[in-house]
Amino acid sequence: MKIFRYFLALGLLCSVTACQDDFLETLPLNAPSDKLFWKTDQDAIFWINQAYRDLPGAGDYVFNAMSDDAYTPTTANGVIANGTYETTSSIVGFKWGYSTIRHCLELLARIDEIPNMSPELNKRLKGEAQFIIALKYMEMTTLYHDVPLVDKVLPLAEADIPKSSKEEVVKYALGLLDTAIPNLPVRYPSAADNGRITKGAALSLKARLLLYNDRWAEAAAAAKAVMDLNEYQLHPKFNELFLTSFNNKTKEVILAYQYAQDLSVHTLQFSYSFYQVGGTGASLPLPDLVNSFESKDGLPIAESPLYDPLKPFENRDPRFAQTFITPFEIFAGIKYDPVNNKDDKTQAKTYIYYRKYIADMVNQQRSSWVNWIIFRYADVLLMYAEAKNEASGPDETVYAALDQIRTRAGMPKVDRAKYGTQATLRQFIRNERRVELAAEGLRYYDILRWKIADQVLNKTVVSFTIPGVLPLQNIEKRVFNPAKNYVWPLPQTAIDNTKNLEQNPAWK
Amino acid sequence: MKRKLFCGLLMLLCLRVVAQERAVTGTVRDASGSPLVGASILVKNTTRGTTADANGKFSLNVPTSSQVTLVASIIGFVTQEFPLSASQTSAEITLNEDNKKLDELVVVGYGTQKKINLTGAVGSIDAKQIENRPVTNVAQALQGRIPGLLVTQTGGQPGSENIGLRIRGISTLNGNDVLVIVDGIAMSMQNLNPNDIESISVLKDAASAAIYGARASGGVILVTTKKGQAGKTRVTYDGYVGMQTPTRMPKMVNAYQHALLFKEAELNDNPNTTALTYTDADIEKYRTGELPSSDRLGYLFTSAPQTQHNVGISGGNETSNYFISLGYLKQGGIMRNTGYERFNIRTNNNFKVGKRLDIGIMTQFAPSLQKAPSEATFPNGPTRALNDYIFEAFRRGSVYPIFTSDGQWASVTGWANRFGLESEDGGFARERLNRLTGAINVNYRIFDGLSIRGIYSGKFDQTRRLDYSKRMKFISPVDLKTVDFDYNTNSMLTANQTNYQHNLQLLLNYEKTLGAHNITLLGGFSREWNQDFQETVGRRDFLTDEIYVVNAGSANTQTWTTNGSASEWAIQSFFGRANYNYKGKYLAEAIVRYDGSSRFAAPVRWGVFPSFSAGWRISDENFLKDNRIVNELKLRASWGQVGNQNVALYQFASSVSTGAYYFNGLPNTTAFYSGTPNPDLTWETKRTVNIGVDAGFWNNKLQLTADVFQDRTKGILLQPPVPDTYGRGRVFQNVGVVDNKGWEIELRHLNQIGTFRYSVSAQLSNARETVVDVGGQGTRISGSTITEVGYGVNEWYGWEADGLFQTEEQVKASPFQNVKTGPGDIKYVEHGGNANTITADDRVHLGRQTPQYLYGMNVNLSWKGFDLAAFGQGIGSRLTYMSSLAGWAFDNNLASALTVHLDRWTPETPNATYPKTRIGGVNKAFSSYNMQNSAYFRLKNIQLGYSLPTALIERLKITRLRVYVSGENLLTFTKLAAFDPEAPNGSGNFYPLNKVTSLGLNLSF
């Protein structure tokens, strides 16, 4: 019976402890719970750091081949340019960015709870969040036009909201930027903060957002404000902007996605380089782009006496050689040979590769960490020139901005006589923008807003050719339906997950 | 103690009084001649008796004078009287199997019950149905055995077979895993030795599962291991050697076909293109063989040996018994560089201490070692998961050689060759799992009928994984010297995981018979908790590829990886069960369980799960008693409620996770919310009604068990889609209602004609679920599936295809699909929305995902020493979607095609199975064109054995010697194109299942 007593004792013990719910009280062992967060300055800094991960990065290279700049054999991304994409194509979700927006809105909603935070830091961190929200809305309004406008942390029950008009969303984004601009520093005192959002970055974004919405005078003013900061200047050597060793080392770059050796890397070298050095040729420049580079005398190749179709790579704009890898060149120690090397030949459908961003690659390099530029001063100058010309026609400030870019590139200044009217100068600026910013993922946005996509994307794309050397290859027929393809469909999953969200009319 | 002494004394007295005696010796065997160990032999109308030894032999003193009758009996056999003539001194007794099995016990929750007294729906199998099959995981042996239990095997990697268990179809929207309890401990069947299994019970309806409350909504599987039996020590050996080959494998097109088809596809996409990947000259070279063609699938998947050896020792006496088992399994992998080895050591011992106390101790140590290719890589290096390696066999065509002509690892598309990385040249992964389980079980009989039992059981898993990837060079197959891909970063990851599980139970049992009333009561308390810790460390750039310790790696801390995590959960329960029967005729049972779980926040933590059931044994009623046809008839009915707590841990709390961003190239910590919390989250509840019948005809020569059930699950734990504008992930909520209806039927026929015995059984079951409420946003579309009220769960959803376009005119006359659509492309049916275009609005329900009509068949024959067993299993209907590489030719510009894809549309072959070959996106959208019915029937196992006659082996002191040949998965019948019908939906990159032919031996002495 003694043993029975033990059992009884054990039973009692169990039932006593059972009443204490502690046994079932398990908190996450892995991570702090929200209850302990939003207490210190550091919490908010860590929080905003996360949002930087969603800035546009090297992955934006896929935009090249959505435009008339390049061709991609990759099925998933190629569908945009050849017009075969559907609402279910995965690429359509590429810039759908509400999780980033929510993350930034959380900071705006919670940061004031943090005790003893200096007003400067509070405003700066809010400014960084406001910038990133505005950037996401800029991307979305440009591609999808009308999108739902989320401007506060939404409870789940209230999250299924319909679309707002593009104008309304742009207005909201501009409002955020106007709040952020005065609160963001021109520069950060410590180099450790290189890569953070500055006043210049916010002004540049404002300029781009206005430009993308044809609000020319305001865009010119925003770009001018960047110029007036006297913080930025063109880097003397164009090619160095895209070398890893110049990450955060130039006065030209305003904002860049920050990469780091071993820790945070990308694979642009796979996408941009040719077979023999380990490339996949995922973004192959088209003759359209190649031929838009002038001869070094400043004349388009059709007009220049210096241009020789049998030696088409000679006597060109110095940026030509800094932007492209051309056949029979030695690159990364290997001769690129699309004629005699079977592997190179199979992959090099257009014969030309991008050099920009991978110029310092070594053979078979598998990861690179050159920063991806989001805003640089040359872009600001080009935005200023374009916006000012559109707003009020050519003037000396427009030419001066363009001349800075031309001079840095090693090209003659703008021919005032030849490009004396708003219309001729418009064509010049558009070409200059294409040449200067090639391979930087901006051309697709430009052909959409200029409404020229139905001309430049409605054709059969072919390879480059040199008579007798590089035979012309007929690559792909592209179709662009202006009634439909100027706007992306909303991702089908986004529609499927809601009741109130409607597909864009052209895609119904 | 006193009583026993008294009896002994009495017997002694008897012996003294009756002076004249003779010794009778004999053997007790079954109809096939096998000795019946432990059979009891009594002298009729006396207490005198003995038990048969390990050879079935017995010896007994009986009075000389009178005529005596021996009564021989053993569970499972008809008790037989054997009259002895006055002078007879030997008795060869043969017992016939008892088809009625009145005493047959079935393991139920926290105890056992007589099968005839069951009121719930419980299926069970015993050791015989598992024995001698070359299965490495116990769950495999359950496939097709129990009506209503669906076992799907979606991968055959030795040591990590992907086995899904589902009882009675789908009753929820999210998933409710089957609760597996091994000897009282909730755990997986991993590392369990099939030879150690005594029986497996499957608790199907809520009434039988409710005793497991909150975790029982998916049903419960109870595994019980073998125990020792009183009697002489018995030693058994069971073992086999076998050879495995992949079951049903697709074939890739050869290099010539690949090049030809690729060119055709390029021209289909862009009719005027001149930028062709393969020139006519290349194609000709592939045709003549001047350029090589590789057999990639044939390289990666080969045959491999498999062997298992098992030694068991058992025995015991009146105060103790023991069972000791030693097992060894070695399974080669049918994929290169994979394999598995396992030892199993188990002891189950029971002691009686005094009259009232029983103590049982069970221990198991099961160390295993799994060998696999390395999966360690470096940032932006080739992905190296096991699936990537299997994928590699499909994703690149036969035009890519595996080796250069001089035998080096060839580069593939100028990039790493994953077959090289997969091989031992590329590295290795070794995962050791040391599983230690133990239980101590103390039972004390307080007084007759009342006993208290305390059980502590524990499981300790220690997993250690070492993954080392070596440096490699991949050489151009063209010039044989250019290093196209230099994999010059070696790396190592070591991971340690420790898991502790503890379970404490206290049970009070009471049994009482008052006249015709039989009462059994159980009250219990249980507490279970689990802690898990894991750490991973890794380094890169080792000096040599020979030393596998972290310190040998690079000192550059930027390339180090360290990870650690931990988690814990607990569950606490009170439960009770009451059984009542009147004369064994009217049966009733009530169960209640009260569960608290750490997965939910305190206010919503506790749940009550009741059940009631009743049975009526009509065959015991006077009007049916002694009926010549019907000898057994029982009706069963039950109602019960069970729960499901199947959510990730800590869903009630919002937690902050960290990452990094690199300002100025240096790491900065980042923080973000991980997961979306819901503090109101609680159980989902399933209530089931079950009606069943058990019947036996013609002295149980024909037996029937049938059940129908209906259940409704409410408050389903679900992460319904959230609007993207919410900006955070899906949150677990208690939403949705699903009904599930089904039936099960099992027929068995047993008979004996002379020495020829046979049994045939067949079972069929089906369950069909209907969504009653989805909650949240309503209809839930997730990619190619939809969950909508009135339909099944996750039905296929997409465009309906109407064959292929044959002419331009047909294309023009139909709604617009795609700018490239032309003859030979799939034609989709317009169903609404914009009538001029095929859009997302045209998607429709394309059928159920849930497999329908599960069946199994079983034949056992024996004649003299021979026995033959065949077992087949199948599924009547299942819609499978094989996608990308497995579904169509050239999923992308670097992909290849299967030989089945050669049957494609061309102007000359308008009636082909597959559409016009494409590389671009056309024809690859999800539609009914890609759906296939993967119904199948599979001869799961066939076994032919021969037991040597006892007379022959007796001299060697052997009681049983049986040799057999066995074939597992030998034959498969299906219409699914190219793949194994058990293949999961998707791109076909799963580890193939195996076909095993083996030769085995059973020996006991």
Beta-strand content of chain A: 5-15%
Average pLDDT of chain A works out at 92
Distance between the termini of chain A: 81 Å
Major beta sheet summary of chain B: 22 strands, antiparallel, barrel
User: What distance separates the N and C termini of chain B?
Assistant: 33 Å
**C-alpha Rg of chain A, in Å?**
27 Å
User: Structural class of the secondary elements of chain A?
Assistant: mainly alpha
Q: Give the % helix of chain B.
A: under 10%
How are helices and strands ordered from N to C of chain A?
HHEHHHHHHEHEHHEEEHEEHHHHHEEH
The percent range for strand residues of chain B is over 45%
- What would the principal axes of the Cα set say about the shape of chain A? globular
What Rg of chain B do the Cα atoms give?
32 Å
Number of helices of chain A: 18
Question: What kind of oligomer do you see?
Answer: heterodimer
The number of strands of chain A is: 10
- Which chain pair has the greatest contact? A-B, 115 and 105 residues
Sheet with the most strands of chain A? 2 strands, antiparallel
